[in-house]
Amino acid sequence: MENKYQKVKDGLKEDIISGKYQVNEKLPTESELMKQYSVSRYTVRRAVGDLESDHFIYRIQGGGMFVQDWHKDWSTPADTKLIGVITTHIADYIFPNIISGIDQVLSQAGYSILLSNTHNNHDKERKSLISMLDSKVAGLIIEPTQSALPNPNQDLYQEIKDDELPTLFINAHYPSLDFPYVDTNDLTAEQEMVDYLFDLGHQSILGIFQVDDIQGVDRMNGFVRAYQQRPELSYMSNIIMYQSGEESGKLFERIANYLKQADAPTAIACYNDQLAIEVIDFLKSQNLRVPEDISVVGFDNYKMGEYFTPSLTTLNHEKERMGADAANLLIKMLNHESIEPITYQTSIVERHSAIQLKK
């Protein structure tokens, strides 16, 4: 169990790192901290003393406590062989394949990787970035967190840029940052998938997209563009937007409302395969057959989708290749070679979850 002293120390440090208190901003008084944490003056002084030693806090005699410029010397030793890899997740979905591709290339080049995940949360992204910088990594491979939303960690990314730490993004990239990247042409890919469903005779299609990530926004825009090119069908398009962390129950309620309509969708295009598998399970619970009653398609070519019943029609994602390409680009950056971003054009993987609509 965390003791009171550690609770005060960790709480203050978290408030400073998160940006709640800016550099040179005055901190609460000892009395205020005693009241906030329900601890003794000795406990507060002990916690503050440690943070002073760690260069997070400085005192002015008679003036109080202030936030020190806690950004440490993050310059990288010339001989370090450690690469930081930050993804939104690590152990599930497509991420083990991406990480495996990164590790195979980097290990052959004599590098080790330090992994961290953000769970698609900006606060956790900040902690991951600081941890990587404290570990003196030689370079960074990062999957952006909630890339479609304003990023509160711009100060750290600017510091990374100023320190010229080799860094690149995978799967997406922040529009405001000009780091190189390896990603997929999500917009065009989703447009092709919707056109594929049109060719199967589907006109009323429900698109479900996660819109706090650029990938989801691009895929949604591809869905919209496909309908724009079929103006006679545009009134039959339906879209559900959601954000990471949203309760699946609420999402399924929204899907159920569409299924009750007179012109209910005959096909559902999902943000990714993970969602598509969950949607198929939900449809089965509603006594709907996939694909006989309604077709479902995904994105990412998740391995499990191949063995699911029905096997999932999807769009390919260059998982291992993306990891390997990102690692090779980073090695070139470490060697001060010029590089260009990589964007994959993907293809439809036809299986059994989408079929020709019966007339």
From TrEMBL:
PROSITE patterns in the cross-refs: HTH_GNTR
Transmembrane segments: none
Molecular function terms, GO-annotated: DNA-binding transcription factor activity; transcription cis-regulatory region binding
Keyword DNA-binding in annotation: yes
Pfam families: GntR (PF00392), Peripla_BP_3 (PF13377)
Stretches assigned to coiled coil: none
Keywords for this protein: DNA-binding, Transcription, Transcription regulation
Top-rank lineage group of the source organism: Bacteria
InterPro entries in the cross-refs: AraR_ligand_bind_dom, LacI/GalR-like_sensor, Peripla_BP_I, Tscrpt_reg_HTH_GntR, WH-like_DNA-bd_sf, WH_DNA-bd_sf
Stretches assigned to the HTH gntR-type domain: 2-70
PANTHER family: ARABINOSE METABOLISM TRANSCRIPTIONAL REPRESSOR, LACI-RELATED TRANSCRIPTIONAL REPRESSOR
Protein name: GntR family transcriptional regulator
Species, as recorded: Levilactobacillus koreensis
